[in-house]
């Protein structure tokens, strides 16, 4: 958002002044590890261009190869015993974005756009959600009534979306992954139930929903725990005939769905293919032959 842009602009100005005043051995030409984001929605749309800040490395090619192999913060160097100011400020910005994502809200207009029916879990509030994961697995009594009265029962494919630990993940990826998934299901001649959005959901809320609606397969698109690389990562958990008490090894998952991870468009298409195989093999998780 604009606030993030203002912070980045301020950081750049501060670092320019520091660079002008510095006269030591620390490199001054390439203190920027990342290309500035154009907006929070397009955060990390392009893979950041990063270089080493280590002055005169003994194995320059090796350092470059390591940097290119991972998005982790490496070869950032130091000023005395502390990180460079630019590195520390960027770390704090990314940490703030991760915290904001956990406490964020999914855009109501986005849910309206795709006609999602809304229900909630017993999570109560964000603090309780973080302290009591078990409450995010249970649908409220009002939600159960909605499922029974307004939703299609025994569908081939039940699609569920939940904010989970990152509302940003839903806001950033749903417009790409959801239509792609619907297209894939149509190509595979699979019919869907009523699209659901679960506020305050954990992965296992799919079991409670599955027990009530009894679909053949269910997929939940849920926000992952945000990290310092991105706060927009989504996972897709799939299960054949989900129900309460099902073990985790019976779930199939595609994780790391975001613009610089698994492409949302590709993920949607792949999910549809996997759901087709689940129906053909009548299983999911470790027993599924993909």
Automatic annotation (TrEMBL):
Its EC number is 4.3.1.7. Binds between the large and small subunits. GO terms for molecular function: cobalamin binding; ethanolamine ammonia-lyase activity. InterPro entries: EutC, EutC_C, EutC_N. Keywords: Bacterial microcompartment, Cobalamin, Cobalt, Lyase. Its main location: other. GO terms for cellular component: ethanolamine ammonia-lyase complex; ethanolamine degradation polyhedral organelle. Catalyzes the deamination of various vicinal amino-alcohols to oxo compounds. Allows this organism to utilize ethanolamine as the sole source of nitrogen and carbon in the presence of external vitamin B12. This is Ethanolamine ammonia-lyase small subunit. It comes from Aquibacillus halophilus. The lineage of its organism: Bacteria, Bacillati, Bacillota, Bacilli, Bacillales. The gene is eutC.
